[in-house]
């Protein structure tokens, strides 16, 4: 079957109901498949690669073969400070000044008057 060329034809967007030239309307795709609706070029939703599960390789192994646990657990949990200006951990003569760090969790109420 042959169709007219539709040089001056117009159609209505299935999403917004706005009138467009028929040649300016495009098919809407979801998951790489056409949905059957035609929309204007300015309101078309591009097909998101994040929603196309299985199409792209998402293999990201994190486990290690023959892994060994950390034998220096206490040392790995210690918190060290670094002060490039020389206030806390700088070496003063023959002695080293250590930096004591404290942390707290709580609530703070701020009011402006």
Kindly summarize this structure in a few lines.
With 113 residues, the chain is mostly beta strands. 4% of the residues lie in helices and 21% in strands.
Structural class: mainly beta
Q: What is the first-to-last residue Cα distance?
A: 78 Å
User: What is the mean predicted local confidence, pLDDT?
Assistant: 77
Largest sheet: 2 strands, antiparallel
Strands side by side in the biggest sheet: 1-2
Strand content: 15-25%
- Flag low-confidence runs: 89-94
Order of helices and strands: EEEEHEE
Computed over alpha carbons, the radius of gyration is 32 Å
Helical content band: under 10%
Oligomer: single chain
Key terms:
mainly beta; two-stranded antiparallel ribbon; elongated; 113 residues; 21% strand; 1 helix; single chain
Produce the secondary structure layout.
Layout: E1 10-12, E2 19-21, E3 25-30, E4 33-40, H1 73-76, E5 91-92, E6 95-96
Antiparallel strand pairs: 1-2, 3-4, 5-6
């Amino acid at each position: 079957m042959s169709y007219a060329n539709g040089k001056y034809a117009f159609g209505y967007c299935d999403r917004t109901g706005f009138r467009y030239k028929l040649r300016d309307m495009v098919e809407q795709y979801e998951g790489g498949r056409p949905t059957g609706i035609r929309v204007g070029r300015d309101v078309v939703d591009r097909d998101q690669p994040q929603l196309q599960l299985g199409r792209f390789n998402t293999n990201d192994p994190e486990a290690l073969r023959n892994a060994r646990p950390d034998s220096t657990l206490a040392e790995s949990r210690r918190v060290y400070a670094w002060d490039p200006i020389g206030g806390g951990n700088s070496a003063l003569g023959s002695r080293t000044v250590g930096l004591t760090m404290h942390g707290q969790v709580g609530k703070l109420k701020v009011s402006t008057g």
